[in-house]
């Protein structure tokens, strides 16, 4: 999966639509790392970086357990650093969207200064197959 391929945005959209809570996070982690390595780099253009960050954010929204995988903490911290990217505002907004979602769902993987002032320290994503039931 490369940014210069034809219909790459359609492939990413199909991937995002096909993901849900019952997809094992171990199956999707290599895909997220591939998107980060091929799309979200300094060598890529700003549009490509924004597409990659938004795709990663949407995958994490659909499978929150991805944030607690091995090596994902370093990857997430690297991706969040793009919120200070000076060349294009769409990259900054995509990185902020990822940061805000992780602040809500799993703030423990973030550095202390990036957690925000009013974060829930007990917030953790549900385990695989676990469902939150309301009375």
Total helical elements: 5
| Shape type | globular
Unreliably modeled segments: none
Which structural class matches the secondary elements? mainly alpha
**Averaged pLDDT:** 88
Order of helices and strands: HHHHH
Sheet with the most strands? none
Radius of gyration: 15 Å
Q: Quote the beta fraction.
A: under 5%
In total, the number of strands is 0
Features:
globular, 135 residues, 5 helices, single chain, mainly alpha
In a nutshell, what does this entry contain?
The protein is mainly α and 135 residues long. It has five helices and no strands.
Describe what this molecule looks like in 3D.
The protein has helices at residues 8-18, 25-38, 46-62, 72-80, 89-105. With 135 residues, it is mainly alpha-helical. The mean pLDDT is 88.
Q: Secondary structure elements and their pairing?
A:
Blueprint: H1 8-18, H2 25-38, H3 46-62, H4 72-80, H5 89-105
Helix pairs in contact: 1-3, 2-3, 3-5
């Amino acid at each position: 999966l490369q940014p210069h391929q034809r219909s790459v945005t359609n492939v990413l959209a199909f991937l995002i639509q096909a993901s849900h809570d019952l997809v094992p996070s171990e199956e999707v982690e290599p895909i997220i790392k591939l998107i980060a390595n091929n799309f979200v780099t300094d060598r890529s253009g700003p549009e490509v970086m924004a597409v990659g960050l938004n795709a990663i954010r949407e995958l994490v929204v659909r499978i929150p357990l991805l944030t607690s995988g091995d090596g994902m903490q370093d990857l997430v911290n690297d991706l969040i650093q793009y919120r200070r990217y000076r060349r294009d505002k769409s990259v900054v907004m995509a990185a902020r969207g990822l940061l805000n979602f992780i602040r809500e769902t799993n703030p423990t993987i973030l550095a202390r200064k990036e957690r925000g002032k009013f974060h829930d320290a007990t917030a953790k994503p549900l385990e695989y197959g676990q469902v939150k039931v309301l009375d």
